[in-house]
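(Structure overview)
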Amino acid sequence: MESAQSTIINPIDWESEENNLFLNPRLSEDIQFFYQKIFKETLYRNGTKSHLAFLTSGTTVTDQKSYKMVFLSKNAFLVSAQSVVKNLLVNPHDIWAQCLPRFHVGGLAIEARSHLVGFQIKKFETTWDPIAFCKFITDTNSTWTSLVPTQVYDLVQKSVVNPFPKKMRVLVGGGRLSPFLLKQAQELKWNLLPSYGMTEVGSTAALIENETLKPFSHIALEVIDGKVAIKTKSLFTFYAQVLKGQIEITKPHLSGSYFITEDSATKMKQGIMLLGRSQDMLKISGELVSLPKLRDVFFQFGTIERAHSYYLLGAPDPRLENKVILIVQKDLLNNDKVKPEKFQLNAMMKHTLSEYQKKVLPFEVVRNVYVVDKIPRTELGKVQDKILLQMIEKGQTYEIREHTLE
């Protein structure tokens, strides 16, 4: 069998005391140098060995020098990898198509699993394209891959059928997968395993079945103060972040032996139900509202071809405390060549918004519609909420006032 490491540039020495930092190569040279310096100073200050460091995802960060750096021990990473391969029955004969980057914890986790089991990794080197990716997994005879919801969306949008429906499985992480998108992907024979995980626990922590968390064997879950709480031996060691020009080291915030996450959840008879990130839970007129649930409602009235051109967002409101707003790209306008004061939604979006307004409760309706040239997203497709809110505050968006609230 071909060595799993033969397709990996600069493979990790999982048994050494060497430390490794993983940065998005698209960051500017100045920003990369900044974090490399912080990485080295942090290692020196703490005497840290055998650790891997990642930057947290940038959905809520607007200053590129304010990301948190997450330090995980190699052992923690391998604890997670061992549990995942055991629970998913991954074996040495599998072939894992790797299209997530190494600076994403889900991408590097594949290499840790390969180190333990010995399966081959085939690296998808080209720019992400759903049709090219389908050809790649066909050519490599792959049996596993890891994708984020944006990539699943692309496969569905292009109507790409799974070439190996009886053996090819897909671990989906890095964000919430809409039930409607899951169903459409399944109709195209994609065997998806929606999962819940985070950098802080070395990637995947649980599968999601019927919106309920099913933890892997190395994970214990609880709900503490309305948040998902995790007890595991794969937990990160500390955060490092530059605040006011100084490196601040922060250890995991624990309640007993449980790490308190930023994810809201509720305990049900069938298990723990994930509600969403803290910023996705809004209080509107005293009512608790889940933005992911509202996005699901909106999605079912829209079209898959344009689903990445609109986004529901929560925004502060002086009277209601918060409100739901709709962000649309110019490609959803009736005519984007006219002056901003004459912007109008196209017929499809008018219908979608109208149906949504009829479906939801009165406090869940869309209060404002804003137009942007392009919705800002991270490298892996997550919408950058705070940047959108800043754009609105700075007058960098255009408001459409034609819609009526029902």
Observations:
- DSSP finds nine helices and 23 strands in the chain.
- Residues 1-7 have pLDDT under 50 and may be disordered.
- The CA atoms of residues 55 and 71 lie 9 Å apart.
- The first strand starts at residue 20 and ends at 22.
